[in-house]
Amino acid sequence: MSAFVFILFGLAILLVPVIFVVVVYNGLVQVRNRCKNAFAQIDVQLKRRHDLVPNLVESVKAFMAHERETLEAVIQARNVATSAREHASAADGASIQQLATAEAGLGGALGRLFALSESYPELRSDQNMLQLQEELTSTESKVAFARQAYNDAVMNYNNKIEMFPSNFVAGIFHFDAATSFELSSNAERESVAVKF
Amino acid sequence: MDFFEHQEVARRKSHVLLFYFFLAIAGIIAAIYGLVVLILTLSGQEIGETSGLAFWDPSILLITAGGTVSVVFLASSFKTLQLSGGGAVVALELGGRELDLNTTDYHERRLLNLVEEMAIASGVPVPSVYVMDTEDSINAFAAGKSPSDAVIGVTRGCMTLLTRDELQGVIAHEFSHILNGDMRLNLRLMGLVFGILFLSLIGEFILRNAFRGGSSSSKKDGAGLALVMLTGGLGLLLIGYIGAFFANLIKASVSRQREYLADASAVQFTRNPDGIAGALMKIGGLFAGSKVAHPMAKDASHLFFGSALDSMFATHPPLGERIRRILPRWEGTFGEVSLRPITDAPATQREPRRA
Predict the structure, then answer these.
(1) A124 and B113 in contact by Cβ < 8 A?
(2) Closest by alpha carbon to B180, among B249, B118, B252, B124?
(3) In this predicted structure, which of A48-62, A173-187, B110-124 has the lowest mean pLDDT?
């Protein structure tokens, strides 16, 4: 009888670390999935931004016939950003860096376009243009908020895989640090405030 | 502004206030206990035989406490149920019109976009959006029991007179109410106030029957009973009114703390204190301010962004104090507000079209 109790007690003690590992592992998976989901949100908004750019170029073409180079630069930057977006994934830090750089390029090109449009009064009072501008502004800020949410999720995840005691479990099952989505140039920062 | 600290303070203060609510209920139970003892003494019974202390009887306290709590609880659950028709019902009652998601109107489009942006920033599902077309003041509200059935409503003035950043601040403020469960908290508080007020309704009912009963039954017995009913009825009436008065005061203070919390959260979501502060300044500078004319507005005053009404039981802190907490460098002037709709494009602001 007492031997039976002893064995039961020993099993219970053995079970504690197992339960610990299971709980921590599940917690890590949860925060990692949150990162992935947050990244998907950025992706949705960036796609929207990329879809809006051809519309914008189409609309301003009629007014800004003499600014072909600028318009072509916008389209070029947009295509670079689109392909960077298609290759980016939350698990690959380098691809996120590339995407950030491409987005900064697109932001810069759009910024130049809007700066030039200052000198076209008909363009500034065009209703269609006003709507497009609102859509772009909104998308810019959705990208910004989605990025904020993604970076928060990344920080939360990285904290977990670096902090004691969950870092042991993270090490055993190869949970790698995620990369946050940072702005890489001032051009992108400026483009958040679309004004013309 | 350190918005996290401001949020912490507001949360702590509203918890203290909720504790006061329980104190108020305890006070009411004590008062009713006193009333029961008074009535029993009047009808010639000795109180305190079992405990040895004069006027102290644990079983009477237990019965009064149980009775009071269950009456208040039942009445407040009834009221809460009655009030909780979901966000859409409230918005329609306030004269709101649901926005079409495919609208092409510039201001409606902008509003819907801002709501989507704030949903991303706060991590709350996108609520449906209502506009109160006949209200020219600047105000907004959030209604609903939970984030999933929440709606956001704004006045026409709010939609058209604010810049994009200012409107973003207002919408972020409403999202904070949704995220922090303030609508549900308010429903419960309204229910509790009604539950306490219900005691005075019972008192009124007893008083009415005291006079009727006194005339019909036999003289000697009737006089004694009438005295007991008179004391009991009057006592309950007073306890209910005084209790409801203090409960209303506490409810208003809780509501004011939740407004500070929502202001601080709006800054957290937008990272732009100038937006929401600008909106508050415009309310201060505008003649119509934040007053909402709709007759239903009184019942829903706690839902709004700005004070929908002026009263001692204000559900919102003073505008100046709110702005100062968001922008400590503010000089205290509201400035003038143009009544021309804003489209955020410098072109239309500089050269307004005459049409």
Answers:
(1) no
(2) B124
(3) A173-187
